[in-house]
User: What shape does this take?
Amino acid sequence: MNPKFYNLPIEKQQAVINAGFHVFSQNSYKKSPMSEIAETAGISKSLLFHYFTNKKELYLFLWDTSARITVEEMEKNGCYEQADLFDSMEKGMQVKLELMRKYPDIGMFSIRAFYEKDPEVRDEVHKIMNHYLQIHAAAKLAALDPDDFLPGIDLDLMYREMYLASEGYLWEKMQSGNIDVTEMEQDFRKLIDFWKAIYMRKPKGADEK
Amino acid sequence: MNPKFYNLPIEKQQAVINAGFHVFSQNSYKKSPMSEIAETAGISKSLLFHYFTNKKELYLFLWDTSARITVEEMEKNGCYEQADLFDSMEKGMQVKLELMRKYPDIGMFSIRAFYEKDPEVRDEVHKIMNHYLQIHAAAKLAALDPDDFLPGIDLDLMYREMYLASEGYLWEKMQSGNIDVTEMEQDFRKLIDFWKAIYMRKPKGADEK
DNA sequence: TCCTCTGTTAACCGCTGCGGTCAATACAAA
DNA sequence: TTTGTATTGACCGCAGCGGTTAACAGAGGA
Assistant: This one.
């Protein structure tokens, strides 16, 4: 890619990146036109080709960028260091949502890229992913103390169920298109509180109305 | 559409329908080629155009079919008559899953059609949907007895959380592509049991290990 | 004033793939 | 052999694709 891309004002860079995220998140790789990305970003197609030699390069640049940004932001906010499960989930979700304020389609783009099957990019997508993944192979969920939770509860199922609900929520929001991060934050906070109240071991004789 | 379509052997009809569900569930309306649908169904493009005069007609036929089939199947299995919430959820999900055994992409197709923005089909999609929707405006969730559940639990949130988890699960499975309905049924049964064990009012002095 | 350098674009090119048509098949029944 | 029907390959005009290129706009220096 052309390093002059970084000389652009940051807003313009982000406009291009977001345009890429958006178009590639709506269509498969093959059916995502460069012209549409350029138009969405507010620049000409020629200029887009001036910064990225071809479509494949732009795509892989975006994929790398999304992964890099996510890991960076997670580290910066100490998401990999939380002891409490709910804190960890909340922190992680907060970071993701905060990210989506700057890059509304980064989540959906990542998911589609992860499952992209086009042979032109498939292999390299996985190569890049593994590069970022090996940094944080999280076996940390195994280190939960069952005494903190409802007696007899299946911790694996509990975690999976929370994960699924989060995914379902995100997915539902993304489908509708109008993303309000603040509202999502509130919704998610409510969900976490709900889980906390239900799943955690009750202190003896606590509040029951 | 050409009524001779119904003279086809049922497997062939279903092949066409499933091919349509599949292609339209992967791409937007505009970017779903008729040729790909024909090829997936194992017939020639010409024949497809022989049964459906144009793309729009095929699309709306599929949309109507998916809605009709779903409502029919729900009614046939008494999904709209369950008293217990969990039974109702389980029954409904079972029907959906059973449907997906016959029409693997019907779920994803419905979702995409619901959010389709192309002006060529948008209005009529909503018209058809409302036609089927008004039959079953479900206000029945309001009729829950709080005494059946954990004291103080927020029933709305509980229901929403279960709904989200189901959506998230379906969405996750659909992304990966390889759909095993039997496995999904087991997974979902587990989730329901999990919810039941957690959310329902405990009988006094019941099993705690 | 002219030149140069950089960022930017409109116009273009060859090609693919689209929605849709149609004349020609294969083939069963009469 | 004829007739009617299910089915297709080849075709058409066109839109839109990835990518190229020659030209333009404008700021700065001589």
